[in-house]
Amino acid sequence: MRVFVLFLGLILNPTSLLAFEIEDRLILGSETSAQILRIVSTTDVELFKPVLEEFLQSQPNLSVEYVVASTTELMKAIEEEQQSFDIAISSAMDLQTKLANDGLTLPHSSAATSTLPDWAKWREDVYAFTQEPAAIVLSRAAFENLELPQNREELITLLRDNPDLFRGRVGTYDLRSSGLGYLFATQDSRMSEVYWRLTEVMGALDAKLYDSSGKMIDQVVSGELAVAYNVLGSYALSRKDSGEVAVLFPSDFTTVMMRTVLIPSTATNPENAKLFVDFLVGEAWNPTSETSALRSLNPALETVENSLRRIRLGPGLLIFLDTFKKKRFLSAWENSILQK
């Protein structure tokens, strides 16, 4: 397959002058195609490009424009600006659910979507195609003389007992700018009070805040960070330099996010969008599928099956998006993590 555009910044394209912030852009497929499937996604190009290439093998007359943005910027593009994307893919299940709840999606039902379990879809609007556990990523070099923790309590003890080693070297999401980080945090807080104790300990060590898993993993690999909390395990395991880090799925509980896909109501190519949804969910939930790209986004879960806490799709995800509840949660989080 020929790649004919891949770079950051503005290109001569109808969607080039967008107000929402774009992190990356890729165009694949036929250069002469009149049909363009426009996708906005929170998934890195490197991880998702093989999925797009496989889809286009069966669609030779179609091209794909793939735009990468953060979870909050994706919401801005669809909810506020109503950009004409045909597909929206996000790791923030709650924000995707909100788009559907607010009537900003096109329903789609097919033989492929009907095979999904109830917890992997909401109505005929939002469909899951991955199961990705949140992990604690540790620098092997930093822990060379320490026993690796297996759960949050053990991590808290290590951080408290070694403040000189970990001060300024612990990273986690900035909940004010990361939709996925906010989702993970609210779900963790529902599971156990240990989340708030860990947050306070990280705050006391001058934790660094990030808006993406990739940036945290980069700095664990470089040694700038010793610990990154609630990083996407799929991202860490897929790295070529993954040997530099230890990926821990906590034994007390492991929160599992499902990456979801939907068709925005402003889609200009809804028929091809439906084909893409069917391709994604069909490959993702087919136990005999050999799609290596989707396997990399679905790391083996059997080793942590007993501790898995899967986030279910549905209206329950909207609770922490209530303006008052969100403001109160973020205030409590800021008091814990920003100890100045």
List its salient traits.
340 residues; alpha/beta; D-Maltodextrin-Binding Protein, domain 2; eight-stranded mixed beta sheet; seven-stranded mixed beta sheet; 12 helices; globular
If you had to describe this structure to a student in words, what would you say it looks like?
This protein is α/β, with parallel strands linked by helices and 340 residues long. It folds into two domains: 3-131 and 258-299, 3-Layer(aba) Sandwich (D-Maltodextrin-Binding Protein, domain 2); 133-256 and 318-337, 3-Layer(aba) Sandwich (D-Maltodextrin-Binding Protein, domain 2), CATH 3.40.190. The chain is built from twelve helices and 15 strands. It has helices at residues 45-57, 71-80, 93-101, 152-161, 163-166, 179-191, 194-204, 213-222, 233-237, 270-284, 292-296, 323-337, and strands at residues 3-6, 24-29, 35-41, 62-68, 87-90, 121-122, 126-128, 132-139, 170-173, 208-210, 227-232, 245-248, 254-257, 260-262, 308-310. An eight-stranded mixed beta sheet has the order 1-2-4-3-5-14-7-6, sandwiched between helices. Strands 8, 9, 10, 11, 12, 13 and 15 form a seven-stranded mixed beta sheet that branches. Helix 4 (152-161) packs parallel to helix 7 (194-204) and helix 7 (194-204) packs across helix 12. Mean pLDDT is 86; it is low at 1-16.
